User: Which sequence fits this backbone?
């Protein structure tokens, strides 16, 4: 019964998100059309411009969403491993966080697109008889950007999650261990559910930063928002109007995200009021 | 065979010798109360029994299992319940969830069985009507009784109490002590660190006085409280009994 209810609610939520997504981007495209006409772009080219920019915005948001989700899991594993007493877990996590936070994201994106195929090529050869496409076809700009962005945000998330876990009182560990729970169970049932409330706001900050940083993927020819804008400028030679439009779309996306997270924080505070 | 056997146990925090050659047997069904000034090592002592504190020398055998061997630690903790000074309830779970979690995920009991036992225990500590509340909605005394029920839900063979009433407002001490008395009467093996001398006198089979990491004196409550043999015991009792 409970499961059915949960399934029904998930279905409703998914439908709302899907409809919201379509409506939102249709609205963006309509607004862009109106704007480009208002600033006197060639009328018969306006639908195309608006559509391309909208496609760029969609790639930006999709890339942000899948990189955030992947980065969340990476951060969870690395953040917990970073606190492990076992050096086999702790050292790789520390190394990962150290390297990623100590190098520019731009370099990481270029590395994922240009260098990673060379590194993976030797191993990839053995997969090809299994029907796996060649590495260059797999590591498209989109997936290279996905790898770089999720690995990058994962390292920042790991530090947030580490701090969140350390913020939970030691007595919680002791009580759970004294009941015979193993460390993995303590994490799953006691520590993580409490730490989530602490780490959600900074994690969402990371997502907002990621949304903006995804613009760096324009250097590997990914047709996200900025790159679409640059292509438009090369046709129209009107950087002012185009960059204003691009910046406005980022602003709208981050504002929507901020509204969502404010709501999430309020909701969690409300539900957590009892605790 | 004793429920707990501590032999030549030593523990250091850095240079501080917090447990100095502890030898202690607790028999099945026995209620042992440990008293002593703060910093005497009494809390540390009971925390070594379920390996919340490691020891550097000696052996501790609980119900036949040597707890200094790490493979025994989980097994021993299932059989040893512990109640803390600061309750340490899980704030994100209801009272019922607090109590049923470990039986479900450690003992692998089905939810129905765990909940039924939890409700019986809540009845026993006299707060059956609070099952759906969150810890923060309860008074300190109620929280500590939930903590007792949570430990009992694992059906332990021995219960450790680490100053269970020290964080409570005075008017709530009685209800927690009553729950502990009832538990002692039911035959539970108990090891209690407390400053409640009335409880020690009434319930304990044996009182142990600790100072500076050593067991200075032990005996029946009457003997320890009325005719303490050691001068440090006399000095301590003179200070707290006025």
Assistant:
């Amino acid at each position: 019964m409970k499961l059915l209810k949960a399934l029904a609610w998930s279905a409703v939520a998914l439908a709302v998100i899907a409809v919201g997504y379509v409506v939102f981007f249709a609205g963006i495209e309509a607004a862009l059309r109106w704007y480009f006409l208002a600033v006197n772009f060639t009328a018969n080219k306006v639908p195309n411009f608006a559509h391309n920019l909208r496609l760029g915005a969609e790639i930006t948001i999709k890339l942000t969403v899948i990189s955030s989700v992947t980065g969340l899991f990476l951060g969870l594993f690395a953040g917990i491993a970073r606190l492990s007493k076992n050096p086999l877990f702790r050292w790789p996590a520390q190394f990962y966080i150290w390297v990623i936070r100590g190098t520019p994201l731009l370099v990481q994106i270029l590395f994922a697109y240009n260098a990673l195929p060379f590194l993976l090529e030797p191993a990839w050869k053995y997969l090809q008889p299994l029907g796996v496409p060649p590495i260059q076809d797999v590591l498209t700009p989109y997936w290279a950007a996905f790898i770089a962005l999720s690995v990058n945000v994962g390292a920042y998330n790991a530090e947030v999650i580490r701090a969140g876990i350390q913020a939970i009182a030691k007595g919680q560990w002791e009580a759970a261990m004294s009941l015979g729970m193993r460390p993995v169970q303590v994490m799953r049932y006691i520590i993580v559910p409490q730490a989530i409330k602490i780490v959600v706001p900074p994690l969402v900050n990371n997502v907002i930063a990621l949304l903006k940083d995804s613009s760096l993927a324009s250097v590997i020819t990914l047709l996200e928002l900025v790159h679409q804008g640059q292509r438009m400028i090369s046709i129209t030679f009107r950087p002012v109007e185009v960059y204003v439009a691009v910046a406005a779309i980022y602003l709208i996306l981050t504002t929507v995200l901020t509204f969502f997270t404010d709501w999430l924080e309020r909701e969690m505070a409300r539900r957590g009021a009892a605790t | 065979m004793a429920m707990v056997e501590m032999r030549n146990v030593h523990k250091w925090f850095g240079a501080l010798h917090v447990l100095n050659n502890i030898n202690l047997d607790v028999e099945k069904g026995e209620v042992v109360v440990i008293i002593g000034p703060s910093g005497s090592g009494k809390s540390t002592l009971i925390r070594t029994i379920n390996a919340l504190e490691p020891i550097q020398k000696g052996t501790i055998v609980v119900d036949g299992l040597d707890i200094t061997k790490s493979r025994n630690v989980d097994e021993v903790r299932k059989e040893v319940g512990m109640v803390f000074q600061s309750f340490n309830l899980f704030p994100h779970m209801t009272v019922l969830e607090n109590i049923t979690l470990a039986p479900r995920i450690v003992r692998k009991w089905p939810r129905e069985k765990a909940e039924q036992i939890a409700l019986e225990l809540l009845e026993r500590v006299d707060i059956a009507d609070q099952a759906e509340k969150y810890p923060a909605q309860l008074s300190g005394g109620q929280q500590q009784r939930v903590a007792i029920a949570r430990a009992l839900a694992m059906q332990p063979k021995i219960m450790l109490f680490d100053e269970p009433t020290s964080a409570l407002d005075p008017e709530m001490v009685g209800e927690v002590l009553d729950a502990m008395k009832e538990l002692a009467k039911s035959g539970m093996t108990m090891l209690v660190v407390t400053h409640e001398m009335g409880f020690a006198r009434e319930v304990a089979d044996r009182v142990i006085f600790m100072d500076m990491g050593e067991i200075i004196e032990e005996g029946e409550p009457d003997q320890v409280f009325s005719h303490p043999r050691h001068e440090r015991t006399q000095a301590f009792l003179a200070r707290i009994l006025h």
